[in-house]
Amino acid sequence: MNLRQLRAFQEVMLTGSVTEAARNMGRTQPAVSALIAGLEEVVGYNLFERRGGRLHPVPEAHFLLTEVRSILDRLGGLRETMRGIGALEVGHLRIACMPVYAEKLMPRLISRFVKSRGDVTISLVSQSSERVYERLASQLFDVGFAEVATQSPLVNADEVAMDCVCAVATTDPLAEKQVITPADLDGRAVASFLPQHFIRRRLHEIFEAAGCELRVRFEVQNAASQYEFVQNGLAFAIMSPLSAQNYRLTRPGRDRIAFLPFRPQVRYRIAVLTPARKPLSRLARAFAALLKKEAQSIVGG
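Above: the chain's sequence. Below: its structure in token form.
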């Protein structure tokens, strides 16, 4: 039993004529007759009685018509669904992201991505970079966004590197400088990450090499927790341009922090992550490409 036989059967049942069915299908009458004969051979009995040069369906044929209609309707729906998936209009994405970017940056980007794709659904979870890597390594998530803190053969990491900036209150005289150096910050209070974080470790190296004191007053887990200390003039901070952009997005109209170049460089590496052991859907590839482009535009901007 094949689809050509089922379509021929449906047309004959609906038109009551092999000739009309052949015309509707764009086939010859003998070809349609052969399809009906082949279908009858498969089911094991005649589906039509031939009387007076016409086909008269037996009762079993009406039952089969109901089933055939259902099958062909489902196939038609499947065809449209697959076309929608191919056109990036249908599908589901599971995304894992660091908490600092899950508040505004990622939802904002997702909103842009799905705006013209009404049948695309999203699951977004926010966890530490290490946990994001674990999520992608499980092969159960499609796209991740995390700091490059580890490597895994189970995860593909498409990196974007950038220079960290120095965040100071706009009321601080340092906000007028073109570039901030360790000498400008010697002995001043800093809001920084936990000791194991690579930015914190790099700052210790830089300040020690410059003979300056890195005085950590506020020790927090992420950059978003540093904003309040900085804008109130209690500390400076060194953070990524992405975290600077997150501040602007989450606190519109509150330009209380100036973000300035810092030298020597503190390199910040973040990556768009995808599972290495399963093929990516067209939808996931498109979103991953958009995510990387967005990160690059923030660095360039």
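The chain has a mean pLDDT of 88.
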